[in-house]
Amino acid sequence: LQGSHAGYYGFSSLYWQSLGLGETTIGWLWAIGVLAEVVAFWFGRQLIGRCGPLRLMLLAAAGGCLRWPLLGMIDDPVVLAPIQVLHGLTFGFAHLGAVHFIARHAAPGQAATAQALYSTVVGSLGIGSLMYLSGGLYEAFAGQAYFAMAAVSAAGGIAVIALRRLERHKNAHD
After folding, report:
1. Which of 110, 128, 147, 159 is the most buried (most CB within 10 A)?
2. Which spans in the chain are helix H?
3. How many CA atoms, within 13 angstroms, populate the side-chain half-sphere of residue 135?
């Protein structure tokens, strides 16, 4: 789910510049996304209590399936601004869900190691490798590269569904 952000992090400013948006507008678009993430984290405890980690991650996947194609099709900053609020879902919910899932399922005394492994996998393997691929996609397709990011979100959602099934199967046999 976090890997779906690779093209966004690497190429959104370039793409928005190509659409004729100014630096200040682009800065505001980034700020809206960060603010939405902060709000998601602010309400993290309530979100986890209400939804649980896996449902939050499914919401993140759904948010990515919506957000990424919209970013690739819309060039009006007035419409882009509310779309940027979805960063609270796509990044914030995915991160909250993953961190809480790991905290609940890590072996006793291994939570810190599990969190470090998660950060490494997400940062280097997930975002890092997909950013490399996103460069070629952006060069070839510009804003249409966002559709590949939606596919990554969908794949993440399928992985979360599989994880839910494994967890339910395990709980049924405990």
Report:
1. 147
2. 6-18, 23-42, 44-51, 53-73, 77-84, 87, 94-105, 111-120, 129-141, 146-172
3. 5
